Amino acid sequence: MAKGKDIDILESFGESVVRRAMSNLKVMRSIRGKSRNRVATGNLMESLTYKLRVRNNKYTMDFTTKSWLTKRYADVIEYGRKPNSKAPPSDSIYDWLKIRKIRLRNEKGQFIKTTESRLRSASWNIAQSIGRKGIVGINYFNEAITEEIDARGDEFFELLKNELEKRLLLNSRTQSGKGIK
Fold first, then answer.
1. Alpha helices in 28-153 (DSSP H)
2. Where are the domains of the chain?
3. Residue pair 123/94 in contact by the 8 Å Cβ criterion
4. Nearest by Cα to 146 from 13, 6, 46, 44
5. 98 touches 119 (CB < 8 A)
6. How far is CA 173 from its chain centroid?
7. Claim: this prediction has a pTM higher than 0.90
């Protein structure tokens, strides 16, 4: 395969994976018995990207975000958050409550008037609960990669096979002391 065709195939793969990951974030899922999606403002979804690098005739592709501000949040949504870990900042939860227009309830389950102090209190309680219980990850990027690999044909697998053979050949030459000059 020509280098240009390899890169075109990989770039097409990266773009398709990012589109699928964006779609996966919007999907309604049942998490702990409640139907939810993971989109509030759309900042994370719009920040998803991939980076294709070519170094020493080796391709690497990283699926990440465009902003370092969304990187940590993206990892929490992808992999989740362990139970009994440090609580997230309550200010972020407060912003989320306002964006999602969450209505607060009392102990009896009745809706109550939303005030600033009640929102602050609720955000602190939610943050503490997240710290205790954790968050279930949804693997939106991992699922997108798997789905896209399954959807690709033989041409993509031929590219991967050739790339793997190049790496194995390069590693065997390097380890035998016959490094490439």
1. 43-47, 68-79, 90-100, 116-133, 140-151
2. 1-82+136-181, 83-133
3. yes
4. 13
5. yes
6. 36
7. no
